Target: NHL repeat containing 4
Amino acid sequence: KLGIKRPINSIVTGFHRPYLVATCLKSGLIAVSERGNETGRIPCIKVLEPGWNTIRILGICSGMGPVLSNPWGICIDTDGDVLVADWGKQHCIVLYSSVGVGRSIVSKGLSSPRGLAVLPDGHLVVSDSMNHCIKIYRYNLEKDMAF
Model:
């Protein structure tokens, strides 16, 4: 019913300015973006397993893939790969594979990437705010990406 206040069932701590949340119904993984700040904290994506424990932190170490500047959109595919729309210095889409090193998969033609979704038919949908459109890319689930 509308207007009924429900009690909080759980509180998960350990975040600094959490912003976006994405889930994968197949794996139960949860991705949470954290905003950086002027005191030196850098933005990142924390990946949690179904028991709420952080299992990966993405976007902070160049040895593990691109360092994030300003993550504006996140989603998780059925393989547990995390995709991030980064609105930083280079407007791009970054794929952090569940195994291996992350990489930029869309690096041209985006003015202001915001929202992301992976469709069941294998397409990646990106909202491009400043271009006033959504862009749809073929997303190859076998990781053979060529954008």
Summary: Confidence is low (pLDDT under 50) at residues 141-147. The two ends are 46 Å apart (CA to CA).
